[in-house]
Each structure stands twice: as C-alpha cells, then as structure tokens.
Design brief:
Length: 58
Amino acid sequence: MQAFRRFENELNYIKNASCTTVEEYELRSKFRNTDVIDGSCVWNGYYHLHQSLFGKNK
C-alpha cells in the first residue's frame, strides 16, 4: 500500500513537457479522482511501482 501511495503522490509533481511518448494515468476512488498526462520523458513512477509490487526482473 505504501508503494501505491508514493506513486499517487509522485503523480502530483509531473510536469508536462514535449516528448514523443506520452503516458496517461487515471486513478479513481470514492475519495479522489485523478487524471495526469506525463510527457516529460524522465519520470519512471510506474516502473518503480511495478518494482515495489513485483520485484526486479532477472
């Protein structure tokens, strides 16, 4: 749960820049709805969340 909270908090700090790859994150709960578009090419939040939940690939 802590890893997911960190991911959610980091979404607030994404700055939209122009990049060829754009990722969209949509989080829904009964308390809060968040839509974020990341075009920065530098944020790896999903990668870190995946690593926290499932471990590193070997």
